[in-house]
Amino acid sequence: MYMGRVVRGSLAVAVLAVATLTMTGCGADWYEDDYGYDDNRDDYSYQKTVFVYLNVADQDGQPLNGATVWFDGVQEENRTDGEYRELGQQFPPDWRGWKYNWAGGPYWIDLRDWSNRRATIEILISKTGYDTQRTTLSLTRYDPDEIYMRQTFVMERQVGPASVARIVDAPQPPEIISLK
């Protein structure tokens, strides 16, 4: 008899708790503020991970050794290689075998740190005697959380005095995919 009252009492407390949460809400404002999610999030987040693969070539299509890569204003430690490598089996069929001579990342980007929660990341490729080339990668919270980017740069010899720096846009935009 005593056990029946405990069970009924526990059930009454549970029903009261559910009713209270339903009427008042669960106060989940911290969840949106701290983690960038809201009730209509559809599994999109403000946090992105980016991996970059670049094919940096001279005008003859040969890998350009020793070019400097700048990712979002930061000079990368590694320079481009004098030999190409190929993307492997973990990539979609149309990316497999694609040749690159520079790989970078992972880069962790929190879109809450950017105005309008949109990131536009500039990637520059420079080498003495060549025009600097630029491309941009734009990200929003609706993009996949893990992004792979590839881009080909055909570097052109600098025309004119070496003191005149020239930055040109890459002829093609970057290609991006998600493997998830």
Question: Keywords, please?
Answer:
single chain, 180 residues, alpha+beta, Immunoglobulin-like, 5-stranded mixed beta sheet, 11 strands, 17% helix, disordered N terminus
How would you summarize what this structure contains?
The protein is an alpha+beta fold. It is built from two helices and eleven strands; from the N terminus they run ααβββββββββββ. The chain has helices spanning 2-24, 29-35; strands spanning 47-57, 68-71, 74-75, 85-86, 99-100, 102-110, 119-126, 132-139, 146-154, 167-169, 175-177.
SSE-based structural type: alpha+beta
Mean pLDDT over the residues? 82
Q: Percentage of helical residues?
A: 10-25%
The CATH topology, please? Immunoglobulin-like
Would you mind describing this structure in some detail?
The chain has 180 residues and is of the alpha+beta class. The chain has a single domain (47-177), classed as Immunoglobulin-like, CATH 2.60.40.1120. Helix content is 17%, strand content 34%. It contains 2 helices and 11 strands. A hairpin with a 5-residue loop joins β7 (119-126) and β8 (132-139). The longest helix is centred in the N-terminal third of the chain and has 23 residues, at 2-24. The model is unreliable at 1-39 (pLDDT under 50).
